[in-house]
Amino acid sequence: MNGNRDNVENTPYTGQLPDEAEAAGMAHNRTDSGRRKFLAGIGVAGAALAAGGWIRGAVPSAYAKGGPVTESVYGPPHGGGGRCRPDWIDVRCHGAAGDGATDDTAAIQAALDAAAGRNVHFPAGIYRFTSTLSAPLVRLVGEGSGRTTLMFDQMAGLDGIVFQAESIVGKEGGVEHMTLMTRGAHGRYAIATPADSSLYYTYRTRYFFTGLEFRGDVLQNVSSGFVYDYGWENYIRLGDCWGAYIEDVDAIGVYLTSSDPQAQPDHTFLTMTAGGGALSVRISKVTTHGVKRGIEIGNRVFFFISHVDIAHSYEGIVSTGTTVFSEGRIHDTLVNAQKVGLFLNNRSWTAIHNVAIGRHKSGYDHGGDWYGIKLENVGKSWIGNIRVQADTSVTVFTGTSYGFHFTGSNGLTLDGLIPGLGLHYGIYLNNCAQHVYDGLNFQGTSGTGISFQNNSRDIIVGPHVFSNGWTKYEFGTVDRSRLSIVQKDMQLESKQPFLVMRETDGAADGKHWRMTVNNGSLNRQILNDSDGGAVDYELVQRTGASVDGIEWRADTLYMNGTAVRTNDLQPAVDNAYTLGSATNRWSEIYSATPVIVTSDVRDKANVRDSELGLAFIEALRPVSYTLQATGRPHYGLIAQEVKGALGSLGVDDFAGWTEDRTTGKQGLRYEEFVAPLIKAVQELSAEVRRLEAERS
Q1: Using only C-alpha atoms, what is the Rg of the chain?
Q2: Which residue in 598, 620, 605, 600 sits closest to 677, CA to CA?
Q3: Residue 294 to residue 340: CA distance in whole angstroms
Q4: Which residues pair with 187 in a beta bridge?
Q5: Which whole-number Å values give the CA distances from 426 to 212, 464, 467, in the listed order?
Q6: Per-residue pLDDT tens for 167-208?
Q7: Are 134 and 162 in contact (CB under 8 A)?
Q8: Residue 498: exposed, middle, or buried by beta-carbon count in 10 A (0-12, 13-18, 19+)?
Q9: By its UniProt entry, which PROSITE patterns does this protein fall under (predicted)?
Q10: How far apart are CA 513 and CA 503, in angstroms?
């Protein structure tokens, strides 16, 4: 019985009974014998032409270009009647018509049931189905999208092709090089694979979905968004596997960006969710248009997404899983979405590069917020070279638009971000830590550039630039001392910004310099080679727009030259400041000319003759002494004795005597003694004249 079955499956399907098929097989053998004689006669060149399909009866196959290797995978070139071999099976061998009218469901299901591990070939044609196909783990191969079409007719809520679970290690299957079309109703899953952990952990199953086109039957008005009449809830629904390769796929859905999304079916191009794991799902060179959701990342999926164009969607790439695998990759991808371009959560070691995300300017205003890239609890990841904008040139959208919205995401490295038009916030940080930004370029006229909210901390924003119209920064409840912002021309912005400079070839402990701003004070310091041992050498204090004081701490102070000098050193206000104090005195003052003390009558009041004269001078005791600090002999007066002399004369106040109220140290202004000395000389002179007059 099995032998008869093999004979039938390996002969062209003609609609004959088995006995008739045997006779047909004999005729076929005779034809092959004649063909061999013919090829022998035409030589090598003729054989090459025949292999290329130029000989009558050999229709060229789009997938026979690789010779024997390609043929072993996809099946050989075929004629019009259908032929099968031990390593492949032609669906026409089991009665599939492929004429677009005949219901081929039963015939193709029979071919799939009989595949026995062989790849199944779908010659060019339109194969009509009215119920779900159950496929073993083999590769279903057509002759190219537009040539081989699987038409799923009136299959409301039904699946198209559902792959069976495998129990052999290392097998592969898939659907390749054909169009999958739905007519008359929305289907559920166009292609579905099992969510069975054994396919990952035990059997290491692999899938190939390449060279596919998904669409409906009737193209709608192009001006309304270039969509079809019907589609699928999931175009591809992927479960557990050791590897999956989704490549060269074009899917056109039914979603109109100009209409209310809530009134349209929830269709997703690719949903990935596994029970145990989906290892290395590689999605490349995929275009979706008018599919409401582009890619859904569910539970336990490792993914690589590259060269994908998700156009006219409601949601681009979104994570919905609660048990996620990290280390995903997204690069060289375009997303046009009306709600969110890219949303990822609860993962680490993710890389996102070379991505452009936008919102269609003529989209429907759904009234909610819009996100270019939204990350929640994503850590230790790299994000770079990304442009995000929400065009509002046609539709004025309500809700808040965020270019990059990060919540609870720590340890991110980001560079080359370009927030563009129509954004209320370029970058919004909510309770994030340890971010490093570099090369930010805020374009267009939008809202706030960077918003720091809810304890966002330890964030460094490197060189960046704003076009006109942006409000640069917004600070919520954050510790601004833990935020560092560097603008062009080395402009630092932080609560306590500091700049450290290192001279790499400097002397030991002479390499490091630091400048710090804190509480209205600018400090310049030197540090040792371990960034410790800070020594201030300049301190500047300010209040508002006024400088309160400048303090220099150095062994030698050089001003405008090699000597300690200044062309003009003067106080800002006349007669209001002191030079030194009773406890901090100048040791020596050198001057080429005597000190000038202003004595203009216009500065004086209560002018009268001095009451201090000879009596005061006689009450003073000139002394010699040595200073404790130097030991050199000096001549002068004792301040305490001067105070006593004044008291004996009934003088309560004399500017020639001073006392520091803090330390109690007393001092003298010797120039104040000049007038009493002059008065004493005058009194003596008068007395001399009186005595001389008496003698005479």
Answers
A1: 47
A2: 620
A3: 11
A4: 232
A5: 37, 12, 12
A6: 999 999 999 999 999 999 999 999 999 999 999 999 999 999
A7: yes
A8: middle
A9: ICA, TAT
A10: 8
